[in-house]
Amino acid sequence: VSAAPAYYSHCHSHCRSRLHPAKPAHCVFCCCTLHLPTWTMVDTDLSLYLVTVIVASVVVLAAFLYRWFTSKHDYFLKQGINGPSPTVPTGTWTSAWKLLAGEEDLERIKRYGKVHGTFDGATPNLVVADPELIKLVLQDEAAKFRSRRAFKVKNLILHKSLLAIEGSEAKSIKQVANAALSAENIKRLMPRINRTVDSLTQQVTKESKVDAKVNVSKCVVEYLSDALAFTLFGLDLNADEKLKKQFITTVNCAFAVSNPQSAFAVSPFLFDSLGSLDDFVLRKDCLSFLTSLCYSVLKERRSQEVNTEGKAVDFLDLLLAAAEEEKKVAA
Q1: Are 322 and 209 in the same domain?
Q2: Among 106-115, 168-177, 260-269, where is mean pLDDT lowest?
Q3: Average pLDDT for residues 151-174, to the nearest whole number?
Q4: CA dihedral 96, 101, 105, 107 (to 10 degrees)
Q5: Pair (102, 40) in one structural domain
Q6: How high is the pLDDT of residue 230?
Q7: What's phi and psi for 310, nearest 5 deg?
Q8: Above 80 in pLDDT, residue 145?
């Protein structure tokens, strides 16, 4: 490397030699000592220090993350609960995007039993596929479960949905929902449900007469649309073709199953900060349609007196009546 011009003042004026590779501080020809400025050595020491700090920080961060991810990996093992072995950082989602939705769950139930443990990243999940135990948790012993795991969504409307609420808010809403969905009230909804089942039967019969092959998916989506609209809101979709088309599109969107295509597709399930589950719960355009519909129907119902005695009711009637009763009890 050629000596910098500033260094020549320390050697003879006629000497323009290169620095000796083995002795970079001496002139090759005249052997005069070239006094290199001290900042070059300081700069080298500083660079070495920074590299050391960066490497040490990366090692410490990696160790911390590994410890954080694996700190709960023995959660089910300590309790004697079977389950697949988790890995870092995906937990038991390693091959989730390679299988159809639900396929992996069925395989694990066969292998580990109806009750087993899985991990979403570092979060432990207890999978329960035993109907009697599910009934015990959701009905008989529901009061003993303080909260629930909720979907982390960013949309303000979805944030108030039953999938997203948690804590004390979830408890108060659950009380109203349970009152509206009592066994007695479900019986009162049966006439509406039976009517939509009759419509499904007629639709399938009609399709079978036209063609030997029946599009079952189409019939089921139309049935779900009819059942939800009539049972929840008291809306007859056959009376409004435009509303029927929009409702069927929304239901088709809500019940569609999309299989993840890569590890990045499941990242919102594993790490809340890496994405949003909004579109997984309900697409934005479908949410907008349902929100507008709910506001419209609620506005109409609230302008009327809440009275469900002796009349054909839908779920919204029962829900409003339960909410009014809850207000009276609280007062």
Answers
A1: yes
A2: 260-269
A3: 75
A4: -90
A5: no
A6: 92
A7: 65, 25
A8: no
Q: What is the dihedral of CA 98, 100, 102, 108, to 10 degrees?
A: -40
C-alpha angle 259/262/263, rounded to 5°? 115
Tokens of 46: 């500083």
Q: Residue 41 belongs to what domain range?
A: 5-68
- Is 154 domain-assigned? no
Which residues, in sequence order, are bridge partners of residue 120? 91, 123
The single-letter DSSP state of residue 262 is S
Q: Give residues with Cβ within 8 angstroms of 310, minimum separation 6.
A: none
The reply to whether 120 and 188 lie within a common domain is: no
CA dist 11 and 139 (Å) reads: 94
No. of helices (H) and no. of strands (E), the chain: 12, 2
Total number of domains in the chain: 3
pLDDT in the model for residue 162: 75
Q: 175 lies in a domain?
A: no
Distance of CA 257 to the CA centre of its chain: 14
57 and 10 share one domain: yes
Residue 123: predicted pLDDT: 83
pLDDT-based confidence at 267, cuts 50/70/90? low
Of 197, 201, 191, which is closest to residue 227 (Cα–Cα)? 197
